Amino acid sequence: MGTSSDVIEYTIHDCSSFSTNFHPENILVDNPSNSKSRWTTQNSEPVHWILLRLNNLSILTNACNMKEFKVYIGITPENMTQVLHSSLKNDSIRESFSIRHHNSAGRCFPTRFIKIEPLSVYGQSFSTSIWHVSLTGIINEASVEEVKRDYDQFRETRVMQHILKHLRQRRLLTPYNSILTQSGVRLEHPLVTQLYESIVLTGDWDKAETILHDISVAGLFDQYLKSSHPRAVWRELHDTDVNGDIPSVRSGHAMCIDTKRGYIYLFGGWDGHKSLDDFWRYDIKEQRWAIISTSTSLELNAPGPRSCHKMVYDSKTDCIYILGRLHDLDKPATRAQSRNAEIVPTNSSQRVSVAADETPTLSSRPMPSPEFYRYHCEHNKWEHLDIDENGPRTIFDHQMIIDSESQILFVFGGRAAEKDFDYSGLYSYDVHLKKWCLLQATDSAIPSRFGHSMIFEPTSRELYIFAGEREDRFLSDMYIYDIATNNATEVFSNFTSSGGPQPCFTQRAVVDPSLQEIYMSVWISHWLYRYSSRPGKWEKIHTFEEHQKRSASPSSSPSQDGTRANPPPRFAHQVVYDPDSKTVYLHGGTMMVDSDLTKLREGNDGLSEEAPMKRLSDFWKMTLWRLSSSELIRRSAYLIRQQQFKEMCKTQAPVQSLIYLQNHVSQVVNHDDPNETQLFRSLLTYLLDPSSPVSMSPASPSIGYAGLETSDLQKLSPSQGQGGLEMQTSEGPYEKTLRPTQESLSQASFDQRTKTFEDILEFIADDAKQPAGSLLDLVDDLL
User: Fold this and answer.
1) Would you kindly state where each structural domain of the chain is located, as residue ranges?
2) How many Å apart are CA 191 and CA 321, to the nearest integer?
3) Residue 117 pairs with which residues in a beta bridge?
4) Count H helices, E strands: the chain?
5) What tens digit of pLDDT does each residue of 16-32 get?
6) pLDDT tens sequence across 436-453
7) Are residues 454 and 511 in contact, defined by beta-carbon separation less than 8 angstroms?
């Protein structure tokens, strides 16, 4: 399918209202200098909207230049789906928004109509206005028709799957099997079908547990495992060099990692009194520090003391690049004379200053030479590189990454370290050509900033830029820059409102492309951002101790030495990531003293004007503990053995049932989890009354029961439908063929087995199981 984006032509189909001389057709023309070139609504209308009709069926991928708004798309005006909820800035700069054009199953869908619904405006006394809308996407007729055919087929299949699910839940298995055979539609993975038959239809419990292992081997648990909440396992590293030395206390230093050899490099920083120029290497395998140079300024073509610089490792050439600096040239007489007094990020946009006499300062004197260096690791040799007129000035608190495959460096943001202290834009540096290029100016689609984060996604060749500070304000936005097209798209205008961290500054972030996850260290917390789908999902990473406090229960965390300690809150630290071992390494930074830290945690406004700081030299590593497939097998086996025990209580002597409970059910219980043990003890009531229900809470954080509620079980039982039709849910002909020698299965047992099966389905990948939701809910949507 063609993937190139073209301009999509459209006409105005309808709108809620418009003011005189401000017709909706005005948005077809991009003329920001003409005050009448816009669509403006009438204030009398409670809800405002404008409906666009594309000239041809297309796949919409972007919408370009109201404040907050929503966008809906659909093939017809009567059936439209929300694909965007975002906001515009109050300026004349064009903004581009990525439009969701895939459904939850990953299927691309076309559109003919686009509805824009303004929700709020800048200034309560103004009517809603839209100046211009430009659309881009795929308009190639053959490609769009292919997508439409695929999407129509997907909808037909999904409807049939809902019908099959509905029939099977209601024990209408004969028509279910007939439709399944004639239509050729696959409801689920064959292993899941075998699991259903073993649990619900035949009650072959041993076979069901065997199938669980087959399901795990087939990778059907992988989606759930990847989406499960990880727990941070921290361990402090006390390794030294051969003389017992380690890098001294510092913040604002730089680190990079050679993942192939297992080396972490550390250079420079600020120790509270002066900038540093020592150069270190940590050997991950040998667990040993080694000092490469005690003072690089004494070496030929090497960088001098500095902080707030950036350093990257190029795996293709075995070289390290260093760019930028903040030098302690002149100390200000007062705090007001220092523009860059260190700022402590808090849980809001609050800013806390630290003593200016301990902070490196901006200099009004120009730097003597470009601060761009290359270190050849194999030859232990420095090289001073030039920055031409197309490159950045001497900057600090910027971000830099390297695409080793294409041999291109990317630098974004930061502030000039001399004269006017301007913000810096987005630049690239071609290693082969030795040339710089300005890709995005300072006031372009991505607002310039400093103290932000930037990561490189190698598969899509995109830059993720987020957070930082601009104009004395902490940011919580995120942009994705497409290297191939030189286009930037705002993903979040405020990721805090989407479940992400508070606006932040000097946070640190690393990426794992294989997992499509970004790990972010923000002062007193750590976050995980999954970007497999747009706009992505934020999730706070808790330690095991935090998880225990939140769940009020012990957890099955690793019990090795050092895993219980966590690094204290800090900023201006450095982190690197080893994707092979899935390990984050953290070093140094600045922390507040305990008294002010306590006030900051509690949100107390009574912080000292200049909070005392402490630089750190500690070194930590963090791994994320995640659920394993063996844990899901255990949880599923627990569900199966519970159901087997309940049925034994109805058909066998209490002594035999009790022995099974003690020897077999107990075997798959996590006795360290009070939720599981409480449920286990409650099973004893079945020995006294086999018909008594045992509540399996869907909210249990360990078991993860998210199956049918009591109301859903009632729906599965015989019920009086409209028109006086009573559904027959007894054993049908097809079901009898599966149990020719067994007694008929009661409806209550069928319902319980179905619930057990659907509880286990929560662990199965979406594309391998019956669709979520109920056919009854789909009918409600049509009423």
Assistant:
1) 6-139, 150-228+628-782, 231-625
2) 52
3) 70
4) 15, 41
5) 888 888 889 988 988 87
6) 999 998 878 899 999 999
7) no
Sheet of 399-403: strand order equals: 399-403, 408-412, 426-430, 435-440
Q: pTM here?
A: 0.78
Do the domains 231-625 and 6-139 match in fold? no
How far is the C-alpha of 177 from the C-alpha of 659, rounded, in Å? 38
DSSP per-residue letters across 3-37: ---EEEPEEEEEES--BTTB-GGGGGS--TT-TTS
The number of beta carbons lying within 10 Å of the beta carbon of residue 189 is: 17
Tokens 């707030």 found at: 308
Is the confidence at residue 719, as pLDDT, over 80?
no
723: CB partners within 8 A, 6+ apart: none
By DSSP bridging, strand 537-543 and strand 231-236 are parallel
Where in 41-148 does DSSP place strands (E)?
50-64, 68-76, 79-87, 96-98, 111-118, 129-130, 134-138
Cα–Cα distance measured from residue 136 to residue 101, given in angstroms and rounded to the nearest whole number: 12
Residue 385: CA count within 13 A, CB half-sphere: 25
Give the homologous superfamily in CATH for domain 6-139: Galactose-binding domain-like (2.60.120.260)
Query: Quick one: DSSP state of residue 241?
Result: -
- Show the tokens assigned to 25: 């057709």
3-state secondary structure 646-688: HHHHHHCCHHHHHHHHHHHHHHHCCCCCHHHHHHHHHCCHHHH
Percent of the chain with pLDDT over 90: 54
Q: Taking a C-beta distance cutoff of 8 angstroms, is the pair 587, 573 a contact?
A: yes
Measured CA to CA in angstroms, residue 489 lies from 62, 409, 446, 450, 535 at distances of 9, 20, 8, 19, 11
Q: What is the CATH number of domain 231-625?
A: 2.120.10.80
CA 565 to chain centre: 26
